[in-house]
Amino acid sequence: MKNLLSIESLSATEIRGLIGESAVMKSTRGRHAAHPLRHQCWALVFSKSSTRTRVSFEVGIRELGGDPIFLAAADIQLGRGEPIKDTARVMGRMLHGAVIRTFDQQDVEDFAAFSGIPTINALTDAEHPCQIIADLFTITELRGSLEGLRVAFIGDGDCNVARSWIWAAARCGFELAIASPEKFQPPQGLLDAAGGKVSVTKDSAEAAAGAHVLYTDVWVSMGKEDEAAYRAAQFQGYQINASLLAAAAPSALVMHCLPAYRGKEIDEATFEAHAETIFRQAENR
Ligand code: CP
Ligand code: NVA
User: Fold this and answer.
1) Which residue blocks in the chain are alpha helix, DSSP H?
2) What confidence tens digit (pLDDT) does each residue in 211-242 have?
3) What's the pTM?
4) Residues lining ligand 1, judged by CB closer than 6 Å?
5) Alpha-carbon 109 to chain mean position
6) Candidates 53, 135, 158, 161: which one to mutate for ligand 2, based on the most atoms within 8 Å of Cβ?
7) Comparing C-alpha atoms, which of 225, 230, 216 is closest to residue 261?
8) Residue nearest to atom 3 of ligand 1 (CA)
């Protein structure tokens, strides 16, 4: 695999391979036998804020022997309108790899095509593949496998994280139940293209019923700040809390990609009761 641009573009074998590789990397952390990025420089080109993704990539690249260069898009000519395909052709001649966080999925795809260097999607409006790989790894650590799994995604079913969950469910064959207000449900075309055991409802309790994982993400994704008040009203009732958890399977995991907004997509007590799982997700990035 040269690039990691989306879950959509991965096969089940590749996803399972990444989960297995994650386990090896985690267990050998600090004493890796090989440093495959030695003498390499990798750029992190970010157009949006980040804590987990930025830090995990900067640390990971260093631990594998490479040097990361963090470039806020606003600080480079990209932010002043230089086309992505020109930025990519320059960086492709100077760097060994790139990690891109931006808005349009096409920009990451174009960067990969025009740069010719390994390119990783660190979040776009369409997908957040590295998050979902880390989450699948976390579930595998805590549950043993993805066999027979039912995941309930509560909240913005049309956001990047939900979309990557849809592709992951389709590829890996587990059940995904999405509960979202009508205006924030994933488009039918996406559901048809992905296939798999994915259901969509307006009813949070219906999605949560029997779930082994209750998962949520922010109501207001980056770039949607103008809609914050509208979304806050629309998403009332789409919160992970004790009463929703009562509908789930016994000992269900509560997961959140973070950052979390208590009192919105999750309540304080439920967040803190499941903090060990949630911060394990972050560690596994
Ligand atoms: N979950 C996640 O991607 O967090 P950051 O936005 O902090 O990178
Ligand atoms: N859906 C969120 C994920 C944050 C990690 C966003 O795009 O802001």
Assistant:
1) 12-27, 52-63, 84-94, 105-115, 129-143, 160-172, 188-194, 204-208, 228-234, 242-245, 268-273, 275-284
2) 999 999 999 999 999 999 999 999 999 999 99
3) 0.98
4) 50-53, 123, 131, 257-258
5) 17
6) 161
7) 216
8) 53
Mean pLDDT of 119-129: 98
258 Cα: distance to centroid of ligand 1 (angstroms): 6
140-173 pLDDT tens trace: 999 999 999 999 999 999 999 999 999 999 999 9
pLDDT range class, residue 250, cuts 50, 70, 90: very high
* Distance from Cα 150 to the centre of ligand 1, integer Å: 24
Question: Atom 7 of ligand 2 has which residue's CA nearest to it?
Answer: 221
**Residue whose entry in the numeric block shows the structure tokens 């307006």:** 202
| Ligand 2 centroid distance, CA of 31 (Å) | 32
Written as six digits, the tokens of 104 are 């349009």
Report residue 37: phi and psi, to 5°.
-100, 15
Whose atoms come closest to the Cα of 131: which ligand? 1
Residues written for the chain: 285
Q: Examine the pLDDT at 1 and tell me if it is beyond 90.
A: no
41-55 per-position pLDDT tens digit: 999 999 999 999 999
Percent of the chain at pLDDT exceeding 70: 100
Q: What is the distance in A from the centroid of ligand 1 to the CA of 257?
A: 7
**Top mutation candidate among 128, 133, 166 for ligand 2, by most atoms within 8 Å of CB:** 128
Which pLDDT does position 221 carry in this prediction?
A: 98
Q: Residue 259, preceding bond cis, omega within 30 degrees? A: yes
Q: What is the DSSP letter of 262?
A: B
